[in-house]
Every structure is written in C-alpha cells, then in structure tokens.
Amino acid sequence: MLTGPLAPPPTNSPPLLQLQHVDKRAFDHFLRYLHDEPVSFISVSTARATLDAAHQYLCPGLAQLAVSYLEKHLTPSSVLEIYQNLGLYANDLREADYDRSPNSPSAPPHEDDASVISTLCTNLLLKCLFVIDSNPAKVLQQEHFEELSAQEVAQIARRNTLNITSECILFSALDRWAAAECRRQGIEPLPTNRRAVLSDDVWFSVRYLLMDDKDFVGGPMASGILTNEECVLIVSKILRHPETTKNDNLRCCAPVIHPSRLSHTPRMAYKQQNENCNMLRPGKKEQRDNRKNRRRECASQGQRTCARIGNCLIQILACVFD
Question: Domain BACK spans what residues (predicted)?
Fold first, then answer.
C-alpha cells in the first residue's frame, strides 16, 4: 500500500495508473508474456508496437518473439513500417556497416537485457536495409516514406547498394518527403523551403550525372530544388561539355557544386541469394499499390516551371555555343 505525502488518497478501489506512449495491444502482449501465456501476432503493426514495448520495459524474450514475426513478414510493402525508428534501438553502426549484408555474422550479444535487444534490432535493421536496397522503386514510392525522419531518409539516400534503375526515383521520393516536411512545419512547400528542410549532402546524394538530359530537365531541373547555376553545371557535365572551355559563364558556375558531390559511379547492388527470392518477389497487391502511387505522383508543374526550364536552357546554350 502506498503511504506518504505523495500517496494518492485512499479509495475503495485501487488507484489507476495511466501509462504513456504504450500501444494498448502491445501492452496486452507484454502482460501475456509476463504471465507465461502464449503471445501471437496478427499484424506487422502490432508486432512492431510490441517490440517498442519490449524495449521500453527491457524484455528480451518478448523482443525476440516480435523480431521473429517481423522477419517472417518483412516485405517491400511492410519494410518502412518496420524500419521507422528502429535505429533508435539498434547498436551504433559505422557507415560501412549499413552496407553490410544481413547474412553477415554479427558480434555476439552481451549478457544484459538492453544489449540483447539492441543486437536483435540491429540485425532486423540490416535486413530492412537489404529489402530496401533490393526493391527501391517499390519502397520509395510508398506514402510511408514521407513519415520517416530526416536521418532515416538520409541513411537510405546515401546507400551505395541501392539497386535503383533511375536516380529520378530517388529524387522524386526526396522531393515528396521535403514537401511533407514543409507541411508538418506549417510552411508552404515552395522549392526554396523544400531545399532547406534537407541538407545539401542529401540532395546531392542523388547521382544526377547518371541521368540523361531529358530525365534531368523533366525532373530535378523542373522541380526548382536546384538553382539555375547548379542546373547549368550539371547539364553541361551530362552533355560532356569540355571543362577546358574559356566560357566565363561556365567557369563562374564551377564553384557552385563541389566536384565530390557529383558522382557518375553507378551504385552497387547486392547479389540476391536464393533464400531471399521468395521474400523479395512482388505480389499482386504490391503491383496495384505501385500503380496507384505512380498515378498519385503525377502533377502539373505550371508556367513557373516552364519559364524556369526555358531560362536554364538559354544559359546552357550560351555556355555551349559561346
């Protein structure tokens, strides 16, 4: 019985304790586990919330059950829901570790409960990144991508193992995330505001030099995210304009982007192993969702975009023919 000056007043019924930041279904699973009752999950969202509760209350056995369920149901459609905020529980990884195969051996866990849970979450995080690497076109087009944190978006965009067929897909996803972040901050999603909510390192993690001139003009250039000077420099490199030109306009554009930010090296992709083929094969539902997402992303750029493209093309032509 609680006593002392801070104790609640005595009542006939026991006082109620309100728990914050715990999903009701996840807490039910937590209580069932403590009472040695069977725990069964019926959805990824419940298992993911249960993993949060297991981490909060340092229950590695329950975390193992949740992680096992999530690994079995890890698909391109569910990966972002599992991946979101998972890095908060995982061990600190070096940049090279994020490109590590999920089948690579990991260090043995320590004996304390927190370290066991961290190791479980680290292995699950690597498997999530592997699924994202293998299916970026399907994953990046999902609306759930817009709900990730800026750090998680940067982690995905910088991956050298992202098996992406076109860098336009990555840029479009970043542009959508930036617009959603502007709305969350209560500011208008203008090009300058969308550029500001993500660092330049993230925007230039897109390998623009792997695009052709048509894709670049119709995508990044039309979006207004990049400045006119940046567009002129990138297009001149895509068109392989000689760098030894004496054109003053082109020389003044050169310092705009540091050469290290413009990469023409293709990304490396994991070699899919047979054991992962079934997990990564898209189903009919995923295909329908992708078609809906592609239609949803179509929008008119308007007169401002046309004027911007015309202005940049004039500068490019001036650089080429001067």
Answer: 116-218
